[in-house]
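Chapter review. Work through the record for Surface antigen (D15) before attempting the end-of-chapter questions.
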Amino acid sequence: MKFRTRILTALLVTCGATAASAQDTNAAGTALGANLLVETAQDVGRNKIEITGAQNIPEPELRSAEAEEIRDIIEKGVTTARADDLAFYIGSYYRKKGFAQVDVSYEIRGGKVVIKIKEGPRSTLHKLNFTGNHVVDDKTLYDYMIGATPERLAREPAKFPYTTAEISAGVDRVRGLYLSKGYLNVTIDASKVRLSRDGAQAEVTVAITEGPAYTVGEITFTGETIFPREKLVGALGEATNGPFAPGIATTMQRNLQSFYKAHGYYQAEVIATGDATPSPHGGRVPIAFHVAPKGLFRFGKVTVRNETPVKPRLHANFLPKRFAPLRGQVYDPAKLDETYREMLSTGLFDSLRISLEPQPNNDLDIDLTATEAKAKEVGFTLGYGSYEGASAGIRLADRDLFGHGRPLTFSADYSQRGLKGELLYVDPWFLDSRFALRTRIYSEARDEDGYSKNAIGARTDLTRKLMPHLELGVFGEIANRKVTANGISEDLLGPLQYTIAVVGLTQNSDFRNDPINPGRGFVFNTSLDVSTVQGGESFMRGLGRFSYYLPIGKTMLAFGARGGYISTNAENVPIDSRFFNGGSNTVRSFAERQLGPTNHGHPVGGNVYTVFNIEYTVPITTALSGAVFVDAGSVTNDHLPESGDMRYGVGLGIRYKLPIGPIRLDFGLNPDRRPNESIGAINFSFGFAF
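Structure tokens for Surface antigen (D15):
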């Protein structure tokens, strides 16, 4: 038979090659070859294996379910052992489908296996009866036994075939529930089964003998404990007045040992003793812990093995310098993990592994094994936004400039608003310190609503994380700008061609669980800067933002508040330095920049603004969610006395979550519409709103 298959396969290959010479017959030749191969395999299977008596389960389903055993017989030949295995597995498959009385036998006739099936009736689970249960109610036991309520079982009996394997698995789950509650001697017997006269329904009685309950008794600590008892009890990580479940003493022991390691006792040993065997009648089980801390360890030297296949670009002292601040500090796995994750986030490594080597002097040396990632990359972007319109961009980056591990990136983006380019250099460890430097040189030519601008400038930020969630910074910027009226009166644009210099302070307190897709926590940002125009007139800007994210089950309620104020000695603040409102990230019942004072229908911005947002998000699928929101905000311009009214928006939105942030589509309704205003706005954008 194998010889026949090889001949057919060879013929098919020849046919396929001949068909390939004619383009219009290629698809037909391929389909013919595939069909003949399938038919050949099926023909071989039929000649070696015959299945009789299958009525309720189609034969193709049985062959598919037991394909491995069938393939074994076809390829290796018919033997008694292989035939017996096939019959056994087919019987098991039937029993899983609820045919508890199935009988599967086999017969070998020459080179063929004949499987004989006597299906018997298909049994479904009709009812569960529980006896002896006092601690756990019937409804909970139903859930553990079959994962359904009694009402669902009565409503959909076909979904619950009766099989001894499923009943046995349910018994194991119920036993685990009782054990977790401290009933260590519980016995569960589900062997009493009553079948209906036709065998189609099964009623199972589950007899439970709960036995006595065991609880955690007195907790004692011996040895060189070092820490006060209150800390040690808290470090156990389990309730000390709860049930004594199997493994609870081991869990406590591991938690306590981890506590000592986290406080520098890297080789600490903790032995736990807690045994309920001497108390067959239940009660409190004492647990004793013996502690041997074995010395306080500190971080030692750092060694690096670079396993990059080609010549490494990264300087040999890069990783030792990054981990150097740890040296001499008491071993703390959280600090080590923080530095490790910082290195991974740079994108410099395909892999980075850490091993710790304890030394006789209680130093803990850090051994690193690294494989570098490709440093240079090219990226392209395509997008669309309600204000920017269609956009496209290119990004060229070197993550490891001159082998120092600092990235340099050039980006150019074109949108329907104009063209902008940027050269960005980032040094997360400026002068090998904990300060981070970010410098960018930029140029742009854009058409805003009511005016056009050309600008070239540079900005540098220097920041420092004082605590894990608090970052402070200073920045400086200088730019040359040219503004051209395109609908707005020139006297409302401020300076038309000027050089502006800015210095300022920033503060960022970020307690969100994820800055890209936040699900809980809050963030509070502030900035204060002073600007001078043409080296003369100056003005001061202050900005603040607070956003809070509150999970409610699977949903989320978010609050946001923002504001800004410009105190000026200048006759008119440059329009590019003013505040605008309305759009996808502010008050969403207005199009971008459309909330606030206007001139000839074009926004002119202001020196004071506020934004308030409330949004409730409900998941639809894993990635897709719906939102309802209420927004409010204002813009005040001292030169336009009629400005400053609070405006509102209510609406609905859709969010699709991506690893780099959500795509958002919002419709905001303007409830206090005024003359020449739209009824609302549709905003399509990327990223979180506030």
